[in-house]
């Protein structure tokens, strides 16, 4: 796949893909006879994973670290697992907090639905 097709399918801009390659988030692409970047289908799965890491708040330096460890092979599996576990634990805490917030909002909305006005008690 050429870089434009990868951009279209992944949702990342061509500029971002070039930047990711420059900083080591993407492996160096193969080049065709005209010097144009060419990628295999695996790059789309990798970009989807990188997108998930970004969405959970992993800074780019840690995404680059993860990519470097991944490129080094199986000897880095434990280091990769520890890095992902750190972010997984933080995400789990955020999910709990967001769920608690959702419960509070649902209760407040329900109080409006049943009476048309908030229930008596402390104003929240």
From TrEMBL:
GO MF terms held by the record: DNA binding; DNA-binding transcription factor activity
Alphabetical keyword list: DNA-binding
A Pfam family: MerR_1
Gene3D superfamilies, per the entry: 1.10.1660.10
Cross-referenced SUPFAM superfamilies: Putative DNA-binding domain
InterPro entries, alphabetized: DNA-bd_dom_put_sf (IPR009061), MerR-type_HTH_dom (IPR000551), MerR_fam (IPR047057)
Domain HTH merR-type: 1-59
Source superkingdom: Bacteria
KW Transcription regulation (keyword) present: no
Name this protein carries in UniProt: MerR family transcriptional regulator
Organism (species): Thalassospira lohafexi
Classification lineage: Bacteria, Pseudomonadati, Pseudomonadota, Alphaproteobacteria, Rhodospirillales
């Amino acid at each position: 796949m050429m870089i434009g097709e990868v951009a279209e399918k992944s949702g990342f801009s061509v500029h971002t893909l070039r930047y990711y390659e420059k900083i080591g988030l993407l492996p160096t692409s193969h080049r065709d006879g005209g010097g144009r970047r060419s990628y295999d289908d695996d790059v789309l799965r990798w970009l989807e994973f990188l997108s998930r890491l970004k969405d959970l708040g992993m800074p780019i330096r840690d995404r680059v670290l993860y990519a470097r460890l991944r490129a080094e092979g199986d000897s880095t599996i434990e280091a990769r697992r520890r890095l992902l576990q750190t972010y997984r634990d933080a995400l789990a805490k955020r999910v709990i907090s967001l769920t608690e917030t959702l419960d509070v909002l649902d209760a407040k909305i329900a109080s409006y639905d049943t009476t048309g006005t908030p229930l008596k008690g402390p104003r929240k």
